[in-house]
């Protein structure tokens, strides 16, 4: 059994929150680029932004679940959050590359 303590939980939550904050900044950059684009590109940007926004809420909900879960669920919830963050980072990077070309 893990020796999960509040320090470990809080450190992980802070790390994940920082990653979310960084990704939100990237999302804001995408939205800013959309405003400067042609109508067709604005629609494409907005569609991508609309597609990604719910993923932030999912990660934040998982972080809340993490603080409410016991030690036995810690690894499963943490792994799910890590996977979601990684997928969102990849999607944002791909979107940024796509729209910057």
Oligomer: single chain
Strands, total number: 0
| Fraction of residues in β-strands | under 5%
- How are helices and strands ordered from N to C? HHH
Q: Using only CA atoms, what is the Rg?
A: 16 Å
As a percent range, the share of helical residues equals: over 70%
The gross shape turns out to be elongated
Number of DSSP helices? 3
> Ranges with pLDDT <50 over ≥5 residues?
none
What does the average pLDDT come to? Answer: 83
Structural class: mainly alpha
| Gap from first CA to last CA | 49 Å
Q: What composes the largest sheet?
A: none
Keywords:
elongated, mainly alpha, single chain, 101 residues
Secondary-structure topology with pairs:
Layout: H1 6-35, H2 39-68, H3 71-100
Helix pairs in contact: 1-2, 1-3, 2-3
Give a written overview of the molecule.
By secondary structure, this protein is mostly helical. The chain contains three helices and no strands. It has helices spanning 6-35, 39-68, 71-100. Helix 1 (6-35) runs antiparallel to helix 2 (39-68) and helix 2 runs antiparallel to helix 3 (71-100). The longest helix has 30 residues, at 6-35. The protein is elongated, with a radius of gyration of 16 Å. The mean pLDDT is 83.
In short:
The chain is mainly alpha-helical and 101 residues long.
């Amino acid at each position: 059994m893990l020796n999960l303590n509040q320090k470990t939980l809080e450190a992980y939550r802070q790390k994940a929150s920082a990653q979310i904050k960084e990704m939100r900044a990237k999302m804001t950059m995408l939205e800013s680029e959309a405003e400067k684009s042609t109508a067709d590109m604005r629609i494409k940007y907005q569609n991508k932004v609309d597609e990604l926004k719910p993923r932030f809420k999912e990660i934040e909900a998982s972080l809340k679940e993490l603080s409410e879960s016991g030690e036995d669920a810690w690894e499963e919830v943490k792994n799910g959050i890590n996977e979601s963050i990684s997928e969102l980072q990849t999607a944002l990077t791909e979107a940024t590359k796509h729209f910057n070309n």
